[in-house]
Here is the input.
Amino acid sequence: MDRTPSTGKSLEELTQRARCMALRYAEISPYRLNPDQQVWEGIVAGIGRQAHTFGWPYCP
Amino acid sequence: MEDRKFICPCYRHKDDIAETGHCICHLFVRSDYHRPEIEGPPEPSEGSEWPRIVVYGASWCKDTIRSRRYLNSHGVPYTLVDVDQDPEAARQVKEWNQGYLSTPTLDIDGKIVTVPSDKELAEILGIEGG
Here is the structure.
């Protein structure tokens, strides 16, 4: 059986989770978020949609 | 089905950032990263025979940027619709793509083309030499 941890969660919740992941990874990794906030927010929204559709926050 | 290597941050992001300055989707970047510049759509010229093209894309989407650059480089006019800013457009794109918000999706005189390669665009638009 597939493990889909995001099943039942709202798109908004999954997008917020993706946003937290992105901000946290930018803190602990040598990298930073795209300097254009509209761009990185758009990508985060895409990751949220992936989690909502497939159950996992795949690269959009 | 879980495919862990594609979960963000994906398995290739470190190599991609080392090589290009950004991961494949441009979410994570190196400190010396510069945003890719892309001009707006070309103006339609008098008597233009290009078909009516609407590009449904996203500002962060590498395939949208690639297709726009291709159209720009050949002087092909188009209308750009950002699906992140236009919920009705996003709904329409999902309807065309079995529920997926695939970008870019192009409406070329009513023919719907999803994430075309430059070669496919050349064939559809009759551009010789690709």
About this structure: The longest helix of chain B spans residues 62-73.
